[in-house]
Amino acid sequence: MKGVFILATKDNHALSVQEMIVEKRKKRKAFSMDRIMPVVLLLTACVSVLTTLGILFTLLFETFIFFDRVPIGEFLTAQKWYPFSNPGSFGVLPLISGTLKVTIIAVIVAVPIGLATAIYLSEYASERARRIIKPIMEVLAGVPTIVYGFFALTFVTPILREIFPSLEIFNALSPGIVIGIMITPTIASLSEDAMSSVPQAMREGALGLGSTKLEVAFKVVLPAAISGIVASIVLGVSRAIGETMIVAVAGGSTPNLSWDITSSIQTMTAYIVQVSQGDAGYGTTIYYSIYAVGFTLFLFTLVMNLLAQYVSRRFKEEY
Questions:
Q1: CB-based contact 309:231 (threshold 8 Å)
Q2: Is 189 left (phi over 0), alpha (psi -120 to 50) or beta?
Q3: What is the pLDDT of residues 36-50, one digit of tens each?
Q4: Which residues are listed as membrane-spanning (predicted)?
Q5: pLDDT in tens, 170-219
Q6: Cβ-based neighbour number of residue 200 at 10 Å
Q7: Which of 10, 18, 136, 185 is the most exposed place for a label (fewest CB within 10 A)?
Q8: Omega of the bond prior to 223 within 30 degrees of 0, cis?
């Protein structure tokens, strides 16, 4: 054996010197990776936290500059939003009204359809049907929102105008319906995951007591999965509130403080898009107004998420 030495190991397996060297290098490499990976993961987590803090700091700093020029009382209570007029009016209520109108319509469309789809996939569909339907449904979540926007403007709006002749070309109803269609896969998919995690023994026990399959779905599975269902609805609503391109294309750019869903509106995100296109110079009051509007949008999302966590914890404790 040309220079190959055989050594006995504890397992009575013979290892050559070369094999022992390779094995030692592997152990050293594995040990090094065990020491390096926690540091890499920590740095990754720190980057995420620092990025979030940086965004929040920038948002707060620019918002404070805006409120140095525009009283916060006017911003919160004034009923007109005309930033490009002279003098400008910066009452955010019309933008909030437009955002809430679109979001409420989207929720009315998405929640029933999403929950019905989740119940079918979880309780009634066969494994084969689930494998086919769920991926097809989730494709909707990957469609670019600009496509949804033009779909709302060129397809949904003309159909709605045949039903409601008074409906304007730009309105709140059409983008609200399309946003509801867009967030339906999110609610359906996450709700179905929550329902599927309910133990099968709970279903079998209810069926054994004489319940029908529909009663099991509504009286056993839904209450047991309510925490995940609430989380899915909140995620969908958050996406509806923050949706930009659909409302910018099909909703219009007319901030109105009303609950009329047939007329043109402007949401908070649509206004940010309008100003970001170059309609206002850097350092002007209009420029800083997009940060104030963005901070208002951030507060809406934060309060909604805190409320969702409270509701989820309460229902989770009950069940």
A1: no
A2: alpha
A3: 777 888 888 888 888
A4: 36-61, 102-121, 141-160, 172-195, 216-237, 286-308
A5: 999 999 999 999 999 889 888 888 888 888 888 888 888 887 888 888 88
A6: 8
A7: 10
A8: no
The structure's pTM equals 0.80
Taking the C-alpha atoms of residue 182 and residue 178, their distance in angstroms, rounded to an integer, is: 6
Q: Mean pLDDT score of the chain, rounded to an integer? A: 82
> What's the whole-number mean pLDDT along residues 20-24?
65
| Helical packing angle, 173-196 and 226-242, nearest 10° | 150
